[in-house]
Each structure stands twice: as structure tokens, then as C-alpha cells.
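Lab notes, practical 5.
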Amino acid sequence: MHTIKLNIEDNIYSHIMFLLKSLNSKDIEIIEEKSMFSNTENIHYENWTQEEIRQIGKLGHDSKSFIDDKEDYSQW
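Output from the prediction step:
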């Protein structure tokens, strides 16, 4: 048994998976490791609205799930 690891671009992923799944399942085990942001070059910012881009820096600063305290987190 051999193990290989491939880093595959999104545009050919479905083709590679089709090929691998067409092989005899007794001879191959497909183990996928999904990584959402392993390479930031693959983020397509043109799909984001300007409002989403403006708000991205505010993530984590305002949530109803936070416990009330007197710390001013906006200064961090």
C-alpha cells in the first residue's frame, strides 16, 4: 500500500475525484482533508459586498453571547 498527498486546485478537483472514484474501491481508499483557507489567494473578494468587507474587521467585537463587562473592547 502506498500513500500520496495531492494539493489540487478547485478547477480540477471534480475531475480528479471522478477519476479516483472510478477505480476499484477495494484497491483505493480516498481520504479527503478539507481546508477552507489554506491558501488566501483562493479567496474571491469580488464576490463580497462592500458592506461585508467593511464589517469583516469588526467580527468578534459585538455579540449578544458576550458576558456584559466594563471593558471597552473597541480600543483593542
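Observations recorded by the TA: The CA atoms of residues 1 and 27 lie 9 Å apart. The helical segments are 10-21, 50-55.
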